[in-house]
Amino acid sequence: MSTPLLSVQTLTRRFGGLVAVNAVTLDLRRGEVHAVIGTNGAGKSTLINMLSGEIEASEGRIALEGVDITARAQSRRARDGVGRSYQRTTIFPEFTVHENCRLAAQAATPRPWALWQSAQACAASNAAAGEALRAAGLEAEAHRIAGTLSHGAKRQLEVAMCLATRPRVLLLDEPLAGMGAEESERMLALLTRLKASHAILLVEHDMDAVFRIADRITVMVNGSVIATGEPAAIRNDPGVREAYLGDDHGEGH
After folding, report:
1. Topology of 1-81+168-253 in CATH?
2. Which letter, b or e, does each residue of 184-198 get, where b requires 16 or more Cβ atoms within 10 Å of its Cβ?
3. Three-state SS for 109?
4. Measured between alpha carbons, how far is 149 from 160 in angstroms, rounded to an integer?
5. pLDDT tens, 214-248?
6. Where are the extended beta strands (E) located within 6-122?
7. Whether the Cβ atoms of residue 34 and residue 225 lie closer than 8 Å to each other
8. What is the reported pLDDT for 115?
9. What pLDDT shows up at residue 110?
10. How far is residue 218's CA from residue 244's CA, in Å, rounded to a whole number?
11. Measured between alpha carbons, how far is 40 from 180 in angstroms, rounded to an integer?
12. E strands, the chain, where?
């Protein structure tokens, strides 16, 4: 088994007397999609916010390739190779698809000393944007105004913007939300391509998609992990079926 890119040990977050995430431990490895599932309020979004650095952990440790990053700010984690997408669309709708990616790349590697150079002419950020659009399958849409894209293409653009920062770890928060069947298939194909070179954490409510694409699944209930394992083991875990999945995802379905 490969060495984890991102390792999480007993990560906990308290909001006053509420324990939103309770001693979660998991590893993210290159070549794997690690899905985190659970009902609303299970702690999934709080977990992903702690991993990205948006909120501080109350306890526990986060390590990137063995280096403790628990106290690092979100901007530093992004530069170190931890990228994320959000539940809600966060594109700049009035800009082109390429410009959205270029801005993401520029934010990841600011060049405050280059006062004489137009940001739009920055070769490095333009190259990163082009690579990200090719990886996300949006190269043909580069000059379109982002706000005119379909919902599915906007979600692809969000992933492309994340890729423009050249991350090693991808934290994806419900990337299939609101998609139709054809758009979902495109996103799943994209994630399959990306996992070869990235460690991916996927928070998603579409259980059919999760069981198709995930290599490992962690199940959370009320902030705690109740099971982690390969999809077949999770599908047939009696505790998971009782707490979350129901019989529709049991053996034989």
Report:
1. Rossmann fold (3.40.50)
2. bebbbebbeebbeeb
3. coil
4. 14
5. 999 999 999 999 999 999 999 999 988 887 766 55
6. 6-15, 18-28, 33-37, 59-64, 67-68, 82-84
7. no
8. 41
9. 54
10. 12
11. 22
12. 6-15, 18-28, 33-37, 59-64, 67-68, 82-84, 169-173, 199-203, 216-221, 224-229
Could you tell me which of 207, 213, 179, 170 has the C-alpha nearest to residue 38? 207
The 10s digit of each residue's pLDDT in 100-135 is 999 998 876 654 444 444 456 577 889 999 999 999
| Distance from C-alpha of 64 to C-alpha of 82, rounded to nearest angstrom | 9
Q: How far apart are CA 135 and CA 121, in angstroms?
A: 22
pLDDT at 59 over 80: yes
Contact 34, 218 (CB under 8 A): yes
Question: Do 5 and 65 meet the contact criterion of CB atoms below 8 Å apart?
Answer: yes
- pLDDT for res 39: 86
Q: Which residues of 27-38 are buried (b: 16+ CB within 10 A; e: fewer)?
A: bbbbebbbbbbb
The vertex-81 CA angle with 107 and 197, nearest 5°, equals 120
Tokens of 177: 């939300």
Residue type, 235: R
As annotated, the residues of the chain forming the CATH 3.40.50.300 domain(s) are 1-81+168-253
